[in-house]
Design brief:
There is one protein chain. It is built from 10 helices and 10 strands. By secondary structure, it is an alpha+beta fold. Strands 4-3-6-5-2-1-7 form a 7-stranded mixed sheet, with helices on both faces. A 3-stranded antiparallel sheet has the order 9-8-10.
């Protein structure tokens, strides 16, 4: 099962527009190109066996169904598309052309039962048992009649939603070769859904001042929402010096303009001696850097000036708490 959470990259209605365009097109039908899925179980489990969406409602099912129908209308072979929830409610079902038979309905029902019982695609089941339905039935102690209620032919894929336990819906195609039934679903999903990337958030990193080459120690980020980027100490100092120089220039210009307004001859202002670099901190002290997920330093000095006091206070409290806990542990030992 792919661990990527997918989000729809196209607006609602894109599938319907594509479906109408394919319906009105005068282009002759042919055999569409569909990527053949892998037969390796390890590859299937990591990519293409099932999909995890950030959400899946009736609108998403309608969009996916229309996108599939628009794609399969270009093929001369008729197919049946069905998307249903685990409750049994069919939220989308359509044919792609004439000559779809009642037998396709039977295949759809058998494939759906397989996905809901084992939670994997029917193509994975087919590859796992090499299409041997007798071995499949024996594995689960089913009689021939019982096994007939299920299908291990490709074309049904489970849909999951992040944060929701179990399968939420099943999308099924019946009418093509079984590897194409599976492959067309994968192709359409991968073309119109994309990995969900949470909005970039800013994070703070801390590391010992007396060791410029030390590795940053990022705060816990179990969901991987951001990426720690180390900011060299020299960059921080250069940003501070640049800010001070710009402020001095602004002050000099303001004074000169004030003198001109008063009719006083402007006099050269004495140059201000640059402030020395901050003295190195004692070992164990921490400095705070502000970075973004893209590693830029825009507005770095302003952010540091406004947030540094509060953050240092928090860090000092945490450090003091850690020392107390360490001392208490040593005393108890």
């Amino acid at each position: 099962m792919s661990q990527h959470v997918l989000r729809r990259r196209v607006p609602l209605g894109t599938g319907l527009q594509a479906n109408l365009a394919s319906l009105q097109s005068n282009k002759p039908r042919g055999t569409i190109a569909i990527q053949t899925p892998s037969r390796e179980l390890s590859i299937l489990k990591n990519d293409g066996d099932s999909f995890i969406f950030d959400s899946f409602a009736s609108d998403d099912a309608w969009e996916l169904g229309n996108l599939l129908q628009a794609r399969l209308r270009q093929d001369t072979r008729p197919a049946l598309i069905s998307i249903s929830l685990t409750s049994g409610v069919v939220v989308f079902q359509a044919t792609t052309g004439p000559n779809v038979l009642p037998d396709n309905e039977t295949w759809v029902a058998r494939k759906r039962r397989s996905v809901l019982r084992w939670g994997v695609s029917t193509w994975l089941l087919h590859c796992k048992y090499n299409g041997d339905e007798a071995a499949f039935a024996a594995k689960f102690g089913m009689s021939t009649e019982q096994a007939g209620a299920y299908a291990i032919h490709g074309g049904a894929i489970p849909i999951r939603v992040k944060g929701v336990e179990g399968v939420v819906a099943v999308v099924i195609v019946s009418g093509l070769a079984q590897q194409e039934d599976h492959g067309v679903i994968v192709d359409v999903v991968m073309e119109n859904w994309e990995p969900h990337k949470p909005a970039c958030i800013h994070r703070f990193i801390q590391w010992p001042r007396h060791r410029d080459d030390a590795e940053p120690e990022p705060f816990p980020d179990p969901d991987g929402l951001s990426q720690a980027v180390e900011v060299p100490r020299a960059s921080l100092l250069a940003a501070r010096r640049q800010q001070k120089e710009q402020e001095e220039v602004r002050q000099q210009l303001a004074k000169q303009e004030l003198q001109r307004d008063r009719g006083v001859a402007s006099a050269a202002e004495p140059e201000t001696e640059p402030e020395p670099d901050p003295e190195p901190e004692q070992p164990g002290k921490y400095r705070v850097g502000y970075v973004t997920a893209h590693g830029t330093e825009d507005g770095l000095a302003e952010v540091l000036a406004s947030l540094k006091p509060k953050l240092i206070h928090v860090f000092q409290e945490n450090a003091a708490k850690a020392r107390r806990q360490k001392r208490k542990f040593a005393e108890s030992g």
